[in-house]
Design brief:
The chain is an alpha+beta fold. It contains nine helices and 21 strands. Helix 4 packs parallel to helix 5.
């Protein structure tokens, strides 16, 4: 969790500690966003992602905590401070855009902007010039989201909050809209917080990613760190890691079938989840010299080519995936039924207490 502060810190665009109860959800999250930074918020359904945005907007009151934007106090319950939503200077882009149906695209974009503000560059960046005379009912989902973002940015907010802005788009439209939105944010905004369920969107648009689980921040890091060093089982599963559940035995995880996975520094007692990056799984035609602690004879179930990577599915003491280069796969002559030795360094095995069954 990122440490918060109760003192003004103008070097951060957003400095927030959000504590509130909403139904069964107890949200307790602290985060800081730097000037010019785009941060994505990810997490399972019900984790509190949208609730976090609504609290920052002032739609949900804090029970305790603080919200500072560019050094200005927006909310501090202990000091009896709560700035109304319309005075916070925050922009919001919703999943369905929520354009004004009676206004053409030009009118929607101009709404909220300063009377003489030149919006030409913004309109061109989001490729909206040919749509200015259309009504919202004539727009595609991707066009609607671009207009909604243009309208928000035209008003000159201190920061923009986006709630699943690409969720309603198909794959083709999503890719194009992602590129245009990323460019618009970098050119027109001092910072943004984007809620998304798609790691591709998060990693393409954001410099850092917040992972929210059960109302708590389980990881706040760069996309590269999220991919290579997930700090929770949910993140590991999202990133396509191998996940095995078992019981702790010393520094090993004992699987139900008796197979042991060696780790380093395993501390948790009881049920444990062992997480292994497919890129950390090595394959050999013969048993490796030195017999690594994690070494199993497995059979190839299938090989899927993903660019220059071959994802190999294997069965044996463990059903495990390995990501190797296509060159290595060719050298090993892998096909269904081929026997190979699978090894994983103990240092490459991450563990987490498996106290729940998601």
């Amino acid at each position: 969790m990122v440490a918060g502060s109760m003192t003004d810190t103008p070097e951060f665009l957003l400095d927030a500690g959000v504590v509130l109860q909403r139904g069964d959800l107890h949200l307790n999250a602290e985060l800081r966003v730097q000037h010019g930074e785009v941060v994505a918020v990810m997490g399972p359904n019900g984790a509190g992602k949208t609730t976090l945005l609504h609290a920052l907007l002032g739609w949900l009151p804090l029970q305790s905590g603080w919200i500072f934007v560019d050094g200005e106090t927006f909310e501090a319950p202990n000091e009896d401070i709560a700035t109304p939503t319309h005075r916070r200077g925050l922009g919001m882009v919703f999943q369905d855009g929520l354009l004004f149906p009676h206004l053409r695209v030009a009118g929607n974009i101009r709404f909220g902007a300063a009377p003489n503000k030149d919006l030409t560059s913004l309109i061109e960046t989001l490729e909206l010039s040919s749509l200015l005379q259309k009504y919202p009912s004539e727009l595609s989902a991707g066009q609607t989201q671009r207009v909604a973002l243009a309208r928000t940015l035209a008003a000159g907010p201190k920061m923009v909050l986006l709630d699943e802005p690409l969720a309603s788009l198909d794959t083709t439209g999503r890719s194009r809209a992602r590129d245009l939105i990323g460019t618009a944010l970098s050119e027109n905004l001092s910072g943004a917080l984007i809620v998304t369920h798609d790691p591709v969107d998060a990693f393409a648009l954001a410099q850092r990613v917040v992972v929210l689980e059960n109302g708590r921040i389980s990881q706040f890091d760069s996309p590269e760190a999220i991919q290579s060093q997930p700090q929770s089982r949910w993140v590991a599963d999202l990133m396509g890691w191998n996940i095995f559940r078992g019981m702790r035995r010393g520094t090993s995880v004992l699987m139900p079938n008796g197979t042991e996975i060696a780790t380093t520094g395993l501390q948790a007692d009881g049920e444990v989840a062992a997480m292994i990056n497919p890129a950390s799984v090595a394959l050999f035609p013969e048993r490796p010299v030195g017999s690594p602690r994690n070494s199993w004879l497995c059979q190839v179930r299938g090989v899927q080519l993903l660019g220059d990577i071959a994802r190999v599915s294997l069965s044996g003491p463990l059903n495990i995936y390995a990501d190797i280069t296509t060159t290595a796969a060719a050298e090993l002559a892998l096909k269904e039924g081929t026997e190979v030795w699978v090894t994983v360094k103990a240092t490459e095995v991450l563990t987490e207490l498996d106290s729940s069954r998601d």
